[in-house]
Amino acid sequence: MTVDYQTTLAAHVATEIPDEHAYAALWSEQVSGLDFLTAQAVQGGLLADRMAWVFVAGYQCALRHTFAELPADGIAAFAVSEDRKNDPPLPGVKSLLHNGSVQVSGYKTWVACSASLSHLVIKADRGEAANYYSIERVTEGLSLTDKHGGFLAEMSQGIAHLDNVAAPTPLDASQVAHFGLRETLYIYMAFCAWAGKCVAQAERCERLIQRLATLVANVPANLEGLAELKAVDHAVQALIAEVPESATPAWGEDQRLISMYSPGLQRRQIT
Question: Does the N-terminal peptide bond of residue 88 adopt cis geometry, omega within 30 degrees of 0?
């Protein structure tokens, strides 16, 4: 689909967003009800006044593209990371059968938007035994604790502890393998929408958004698609240099959100 970026940009009214809860409220009010995820990424990027919210916008769209059963409203997080630092490490999340019902227990060590999320998608077990579950924030046995986040520090980050949490029906995980690429593309889309507010040629941002929308709808499966993916990545990286330092208070550090995905995209191959 095409995204009418110019119209959306022209209608945009700058809004002060003091914290994550304020952005989450705007997401529910102005973004989550839009019919298409590409439109959500664009609107979420336009609303953002810093790169932390650009990340949240792209992340939300990638999650819902990957797990279609997730509620449209509210903020979701995808908890996959497990402890690799402590000795002994915190136990990862595993499932067990208790009185005929599946329960999950263990720790996930990186949870985005831990202060504002309404649903947590967790991976339990590994390999062919792995399942993915959507667990509501207010669930018996689930606790979230904050941890310091140096990068994108305005976004809350935390640790999830699951203690014999009753597991709901597993999510359809057939699209999980595409989450990483979709996350990158939706974040790029939100970034281009945001950048259009502060660079000289918003039309360039619009063209990139359209190309990104095409890529996210059709994961590159041949050499032509791969070449387009890498070309779009180069164009997005070039856009970074056009953003003025004054765009956000921490632009010098936060621009890493966009540049850090490029090496992986440029190494990507068709398998």
Answer: yes
User: How far apart are alpha carbons 5 and 46 in whole angstroms?
Assistant: 10
pTM exceeding the 0.90 threshold for the entire prediction: yes
Looking at the structure, tell me whether residues 209 and 253 fall in a common domain.
Answer: yes
Range of the domain at 90: 76-166
Q: Are β-strands 101-112 and 131-136 bridged in parallel, bridged antiparallel, or unpaired?
A: unpaired
Cα 38 to the chain's mean position, in Å?
13
Q: What total of structural domains would you count in the chain?
A: 2
- What residues pair up with 108 in beta bridges, in sequence order? 160
Same domain, 152 and 225: no
Strands 157-166 and 76-79, bridge-based pairing: unpaired
Of residues 103, 118, 111, the one with CA closest to residue 21: 118
d(CA 182, CA 265): 12
What are 107-162's pLDDT values in tens digits?
999 999 999 999 999 999 999 999 999 999 999 999 999 987 778 989 999 999 99
What is the per-residue pLDDT for 2?
Answer: 60
180 and 263 inside one domain: yes
Pair 189, 243 in one domain = yes
Amino acid (one-letter) located at 19? D
In a domain, 171, yes or no: no
